[in-house]
Amino acid sequence: MLNRYPLWKVVLILFVIGLGVVYALPNLYPEDPAIQVSGSRASIEVTNRDQARIEQALNQAGIAFFGSQLENQSLLIRFADNQAQTAAQSVIQQAAGDNLVVALNQAPTTPDWLSSLGAKRINLGLDLRGGVHFQMEVDMEAAVAQQLEAEAGEVRRLLRSERLRFRQVTLSDQGLRVQMASEEDLVQAQRLLQRELRDFDFEANPTTLRLHLTLKEQMVRDIEDYAIEQNLITLRNRVNELGVAEPLVQRSGRNRIVVELPGIQDTAAAKRVLGATANLQFRLEARQNEDPINVERFNFRDEHGRSALLERDIITTGNHVTNASIGFDENNRAQVNVRLNSQGGRLMSQATRPNVGRAMAVIFIEHKTRSQFVEQDGELVEQRENFVEQGIISLANIQSELGSSFRITGNFSVQEANELAMLLRAGALAAPMYFVEERTIGPSLGQTNIEQGVLSIQIGLALVVLFMLIWYRLFGVFACVALTANLVLLVALLSVLGATLTLPGIAGIVLTLGMAVDANVLINARIKEEMYHRGLSPQNAIHAGYEKAFSTILDANITTFLVAIILFSVGTGPVKGFAVTLSLGLLTSMFTAIMVTRLQVNWVYGQRRVERLSI
């Protein structure tokens, strides 16, 4: 029978629209300004005592808050506005202490029943929502020191390979100091190192038997530039691991990096992960009666106060890690499976082959910032102190020669193992970084532009609806209902897929609305032509109108979809946002303009005798 959908198709169309309504609903619930407090490490939990201390500090400062709650090992405190949120940050930081991370956040207000279905708000870009701004300073002196530490190990290896006697190799200001055992060894060492190490200037002192190696100025600049570029790459990888949409990570000046994140659900974790140097060192445990000059004592990163003596020579570092993943050993304890690059695998093999049976330690190194509040001129001023925290996370016997793949075992919790694996996957920082500024940022294009963008959608929708109602009457009503369904489905898809909506994305939505109703214009015009010019009955005209207009609509949408794919492939962030909304809008408009309007037409005109159509 003409103009009649089978029951399964009716149910399917209504189900899709209902599903779209459910997943679009979270966008009606605005977010609250909030501050999130979490542990500086994954193993540290925020306790009820911490919560009470922080709430007391806020009450004493006269800052109103609501919704303070502990969940997922962290504390989330909600505020009525951004002013209260900003004022509370320093108060909470002072009350929290060094073991807790305080970060600005946006707290969702989506009902639990919607969240349980996986429904969430659309990700908004920095130009629409604003976000969190971090400014981080790269420690250039530490970058040079790390390179010198590696060069010191190479110097020791070269001297031992040539059987030249030396007492110690130590770091000096932008260089190394080698203490030799005799004048003859000094001369031979200078000749050897000048041949092998071309990035240093050499100066020998026969009186003190010391050889001074100083990095050339060009090499120092190269190390600093490499540190910035490598840290940029690593930060971008870490942001990608966090799943942040449309982030901004860029260099600022000589030694700073700016990171801007559109509001994410766990900015405390983001701050902890972005700031963690998370580098590893692999060292052999020192033998008994080892020369004290060649050993160094490290504490374990646990609560038992243990320590161990390790050799100063470093086998390899986290810089050579290419992949890391969490796993579980035969006792179901968390471990980290590590894969090294070819150079790291070679160094590991060379070090472990002659040392099977000895213990090898894995040292975890973090560069942190400690905040203190001191009173100056009657006001509390925050002062930051940089410090290094390092300790042994694993000390185990070498069972056989190790290569590029091995596992790190220790007293890990699942959360600690996950975080360590994620940091190693993202890559080690070439130099430590410290937070020097953190603030919330408003929409970069201004609230007025945002309101005008939303207003453009409303005006465009209103004009389209008015035109369709006047020109096509009842069929115009069908088109307007379908247009509303199209907008709901588009918002739902953007929410479910985690796409980021920017101001150009709003332009894509406006264009989608126009193109969606264009399909109904084609269908309605075809129905009128079939009925008034070809003399078909209303039922046959409806059937022919939809059938003959379909190919034209499909061709137009395919060509536009191809353009959207090209824009997404070659465009930058804002252009990608436009392309995403346009392509998704084409898919939803095909469904609503054809299926949803046809369903309404069938309900009104199908299965009965009709003399004329309201079109």
From TrEMBL:
Domain (Protein export membrane protein SecD/SecF C-terminal): residue spans on this chain: 436-597
Subcellular location: Cell membrane
Bilayer topology annotation: Multi-pass membrane protein
Metal-binding found in the keyword field: no
Taxonomic superkingdom: Bacteria
Record-annotated Protein translocase subunit SecDF P1 domain positions: 228-285
InterPro entries in UniProt: Acrflvin-R, SecD, SecD-TM, SecD/SecF_arch_bac, SecD/SecF_CS, SecD_1st, SecD_SecF_C, SecD_SecF_C_bact
Membrane-traversing stretches: 453-472, 477-499, 505-527, 548-571, 577-599
Ranges where the SecD export protein N-terminal TM domain occurs: 2-104
Pfam families (alphabetical): Sec_GG, SecD-TM1, SecD_1st, SecD_SecF_C, SecDF_P1_head
Keywords attached to this entry: Cell membrane, Membrane, Protein transport, Translocation, Transmembrane, Transmembrane helix, Transport
Major localisation: membrane
Residues of the SecDF P1 head subdomain domain: 299-431
Recorded family membership: Belongs to the SecD/SecF family. SecD subfamily.
Primary role: Part of the Sec protein translocase complex. Interacts with the SecYEG preprotein conducting channel. SecDF uses the proton motive force (PMF) to complete protein translocation after the ATP-dependent function of SecA.
Assembly information from the UniProt record: Forms a complex with SecF. Part of the essential Sec protein translocation apparatus which comprises SecA, SecYEG and auxiliary proteins SecDF-YajC and YidC.
Protein name in the entry: Protein translocase subunit SecD
Gene expressing this chain: secD
